[in-house]
UniProtKB/TrEMBL annotation:
GO terms for cellular component: ribonucleoprotein complex; ribosome. Belongs to the bacterial ribosomal protein bL9 family. Gene3D superfamilies: Ribosomal protein L9, C-terminal domain, Ribosomal protein L9, N-terminal domain. This is Large ribosomal subunit protein bL9. The gene is rplI. Pfam families: Ribosomal_L9_C, Ribosomal_L9_N.
């Protein structure tokens, strides 16, 4: 089955790539999840738009990624979350919460899919997450969870 990827899929490709996958993987996972569209001559015209959007979001190189890393690591990031008196959260801090907090703290817009936690953040206090800015550059982001 021939597909056009609309987002990055590990070990398969990046947005805008035309890939050949097994029918079941494409039909049952990639297309329903919105990670790909079925290839056709008409859909092939969308590839250019997908690539332009990806290039606008993408970090321009290792040097640019290293600049972003130093900028992000210098920020003081506070993530508000609903918490009990004991300090435990009602839920957990998500990658989207952290990406939004980085932007509010004056940092660059980061993709929530590039944020990862060593373990789920479910308590008030200081925590660390990693943000993959480039395949060769990862930033360690320190943030404080405060009760909202």
């Amino acid at each position: 089955m021939k597909l056009i990827l609309t987002s990055t899929v590990d070990k398969l490709g990046i947005a805008g790539d035309v890939v050949e996958v097994r029918n079941g993987y494409g039909r049952n996972y990639l297309v329903p999840q919105g990670k790909a569209i079925v290839w056709s001559r008409g859909a092939e015209k969308q590839i250019e738009g997908i690539k332009r959007a990806r290039d606008a979001r993408e970090v321009r190189g290792v040097e640019h990624a290293q600049e972003l890393r130093t900028q992000i690591e210098e920020l003081t990031i506070k993530v508000p979350a609903r918490a009990a008196e004991s300090g435990s959260l009602f839920g957990a801090v998500t990658a989207a919460n952290l990406a939004l907090a980085v932007k509010k703290a004056g940092g660059p817009a980061i993709d929530k899919r590039s944020v990862s936690f060593a373990k789920p953040v479910k308590t008030v206090g200081n925590h660390v997450a990693s943000v993959k800015l480039h395949p060769a550059v990862t930033a360690r982001v320190g943030f404080e969870v405060i009760p909202a």
